[in-house]
Every structure is written in C-alpha cells, then in structure tokens.
Amino acid sequence: MEKSLYYPLKEEGLTTLMLRYDYRTDREYIIAAKEWDSDIEWSNFNKTFYADSLLTENDIRLNNRETRALIDKYGLTDYLEEVFNLLRRGKFFGLDCYYYDRKDMRFTANLHSVVLGVNNKDHALYTGGIRRHDRDEEEIEVIIDGLNLGRAQSHKNVASQIPYGGGKITVVADEADLNDTEELGFLAFALDRVKFFTGPDMRYPIELADAMAPYSAYITAGPSNPIGSSGKPTAWGVECALKEAVKFQFGRDSLEGLTVAVMGLGSVGYAQAEYLLKDGAKLIVSDINPQMAKKLKNQYPEAEITVVENEEILNAEADILCPCAVGGFLTEEVIHKLKFKMVFGAANNQLHASNKEEELRLAKLLMNRGILYQECWVQNIGGVMSGAEMYTKGDKADKRKLMDRVEKVCSEITRKNLKEAAEKGITPSENAYNSVEDRIYL
C-alpha cells in the first residue's frame, strides 16, 4: 500500500485534503472532499470558471471524524500522526492538498504562518516558491522539505518587510510541459484556491511563470518580467550581507584575497560567483553540471577559479563556504569536519534540521568551532523582495530601486544581527529568531 496522504484521495475519487493545527491550543483536524469532476477542463480556468465556482453536482464533504476513518481504512493512521507531529514541532498552520487524477499531480501548499498576510488588502495571503519533486521521492521527505522551506519563508518575509504569510508549494509530478494548458490551468487553480503568490523554484523552469500568465496573476519571475530572474537579486543580497559578515569576522573591508568555496552554480550560485569575483575573491567551485564551472572559467579567464567535484567542496581549503545549492547538508558530523571560518550563502535550510530547536543546536556547534553562521533567511531574501516587487507593481517594477533596497535591507539586518548576537553571547541564528518571531506567532 502506498504511504501517502494522496492515496485515499486517489482510491476514493476525492480531490482535496486539508490538515489544520493550532499551536496555541494543540488542537488539530483533517477534512477531505470531492470538489470537482474528473473531466473538468483546466485549460478554461479563469475563463469559464474560477477558483470558487461550482465544479461538481456530486460533491463529497468528509468531516474530521469521517476523514480519520478514511485514513485508517488505508492503514495510514500512524503516518498521519507523523505528519501532524511535524506541524506541531514547527507551529505550522497546516497543509492544503489538491489532487489532479488524470496526471496524478499532487499539489501541496505547506502553510506555516498567515499572520503577516491578514488584512494586507491584497488577494494573496501567502508567498513562497513552487518546486517540483520527482515521483521516486518518499512523500514524507517531500513534506519535510516543504515545511522547512515554508517556515523559513515566514521569517524571510519579516526580514524582507513584505506583508505576506510564509509557505511553500511542492508538486509531485512529471517534468513540466509548458505547452500543456490542462497542467497550467490546474496549477493556477490551486494557487488561487490557497491565495498564494509564488515564483518557479527547483525543478520548475522560470518559463513556467510566463506560460501560466494567461491563467493566473499569482506567479511571477518569468523571463518577460522587467526585473529578470530572481537569482541576481538573491545573490546580490547575500553578497551585501557577506561583506558585512567578513568585516565582523575578519575585520576586513574587502573580500580581496579571500578564498570562497561556492557550492552550486545554478541561477543564484552563478550570479553569486560573479559578484564574489568582482569583489576580488578567489573561488573554489562545484556543481552537478560540469558545464557551469567551465562556463564560469571561460567567462573570467583571468580570475583564480579552481573547480572541484561536488563531494570535495566541503573539504576545500577556503576561508568561506558559500552554499548555493540544496540544503540540509550541515549535519553534526559535517560541522565537526569543516575547515572554514564562515558558512554564508544563499541555499535554503542549510542546517540538517526539521525545527527551530534542532537548527539552534547545530548553529551552536558552528559557533563553538569558531565558524560564523546565521540563518539563511536573514540574507537570501533578495528573491522574495523581487517577487513582491513584480507581484505588486507588474510592468512598473523597477530593478534599480529593487537592488538598492535589497542592498540596504540585507546589509543593515546582517550588521545589526551579528552585533546584537555578539553582545548577548548567543548565536546569530538565535538572535535572528528572537528578533522576528513576535511578528509571526500571535
């Protein structure tokens, strides 16, 4: 039997599952429903029907007790409790799950906190990226990934000074077909239902945003937007923060002569490498695609760039590790072996943890080893700010003003966070959490 929250939906002809948790009362509930017919033409979304239209005359609504009985019927009661425990430990609002049966697409909105989005006078209550997961990944790992990213997003939004709750969209599906109007329409419908604005993330091409434009105004960062890819604003924010951290850790006003190990050369990592080179750093780089490192060396033939294999980057002889790829790699074992004096990059959820307490424990280990680290959501907020600029201003979005604002916010918040943490004798991660959580939790 498949260990998945979507399995009962698939077997019973249902479309929707919602989990809710209230951390203040420790109460939880789950409901399931059939909200549309299987032959609905998603390509007509926002043309002949809308997110709140009547999409079936044979609807099914299961309350908490009935849904739990359904979950138990398929032997998933223990699994459901495992998921609720994840919500409990991270103080999550819940999960919204939508199932597209014809393509076996599994759309999950990982909703952390809605507080910032309430009464913001806008359609969207939440923001966070949308990423695709392959079918061979275990669902619980997909959920953990989405929840970790959603929780980080809430904190990013405070740091970014934008009025939206934090969350993350994960979709288990085949590789996107940007010409498939049914697929595009379904994704647009689900975004509208959860009142979520987003931008393409891992395993979704940035072109997805432009392809979905006829169906939804709530996905940004496509190639046609006036700002361009969110990778550069993200990297620029990290660069500005990193220079403040270098001043704090090394007492230097420049990166000139420092060696930085850049882990990942994707849309953010490549831009990060360029900014580091322009600021005088020597680089050690790695990426799963060897062509990216080759491209960088060809573009900057005079620069000092050393290419290593992915498995070698954590052992590199460098002053700073700048992670710009997947997160979760900083385990206790890895931390004890690091040779760097700083870990400061753009990757999300760099610590191998599923809640704040685990993160703070690992952050303390880094501090005890003399390695400067602060939570990634303090500095990698340029992409969030870029998305908000495009979502709220559309064609009038101003890239220069955005980059200036990213520089100001990321520099100031890092300078303040590192100084306060040192004065209090705590990790920068703990200080960062303390400074924002009264804005997230009621």
Descriptors:
442 residues, alpha/beta, 9-stranded mixed beta sheet, 5-stranded parallel beta sheet
Structural write-up:
This protein is an alpha/beta fold. It has helices at 6-12, 64-73, 77-90, 139-160, 181-193, 207-212, 231-250, 267-278, 290-299, 332-337, 356-368, 376-379, 382-393, 399-424, 428-436, and strands at residues 16-22, 27-34, 60-62, 94-100, 105-113, 126-127, 130-133, 165-172, 196-197, 259-263, 282-286, 305-307, 320-323, 342-343. Helix content is 42%, strand content 16%. The strands form two sheets. Strands 1, 2, 3, 4, 5, 6, 7, 8 and 9 form a nine-stranded mixed beta sheet that branches. Strands 12-11-10-13-14 form a five-stranded parallel beta sheet, covered by helices on one side.
Gap between N and C termini: 40 Å
What is the number of beta strands?
14
Rg over alpha carbons: 22 Å
Low-confidence stretches: none
H and E order: HEEEHHEEEEHEHEHHEHEHEEHEHHHHH
Bulk shape: globular
What kind of sheet is the major sheet? 9 strands, mixed
Distinct helical segment count? 15
Helix content: 40-55%
Mean pLDDT: 95
Beta-strand portion reads 15-25%
Backbone structural class: alpha/beta
Topology summary:
Layout: H1 6-12, E1 16-22, E2 27-34, E3 60-62, H2 64-73, H3 77-90, E4 94-100, E5 105-113, E6 126-127, E7 130-133, H4 139-160, E8 165-172, H5 181-193, E9 196-197, H6 207-212, H7 231-250, E10 259-263, H8 267-278, E11 282-286, H9 290-299, E12 305-307, E13 320-323, H10 332-337, E14 342-343, H11 356-368, H12 376-379, H13 382-393, H14 399-424, H15 428-436
Parallel strand pairs: 6-8, 6-9, 7-8, 10-11, 10-13, 11-12, 13-14
Antiparallel strand pairs: 1-2, 1-4, 2-3, 4-5, 5-8
Helix pairs in contact: 3-4, 7-8, 7-13, 7-14, 13-14, 14-15
